Description:
This protein is of the alpha+beta class. It has one domain (3-74). It contains 2 helices and 3 strands, in the order H-E-E-E-H. It has helices spanning 3-32, 59-74; strands at residues 38-42, 45-50, 53-57. The longest helix has 30 residues, at 3-32.
Amino acid sequence: MNDDNLFDERPELDRETTSINQLNDLGNRAVQLGLIAGHGYHGGKYEILRQGKAILLSSQEAATYLAELIASVRS
């Protein structure tokens, strides 16, 4: 592997890490608020446990879902 390729991939890795951290923070906040029972990656999708059901979403869909869920109790 060329060292230049490592540097080219670094910004993408940083974005993915930030995205994962933000998603985890949203999930933890939703748990604290009692909106969901749990969350995490499962089988390549992001799983949200809510009202006795497992909801499988892409990371982006999960972030949107959790943000809207949290916003709904704040308004």
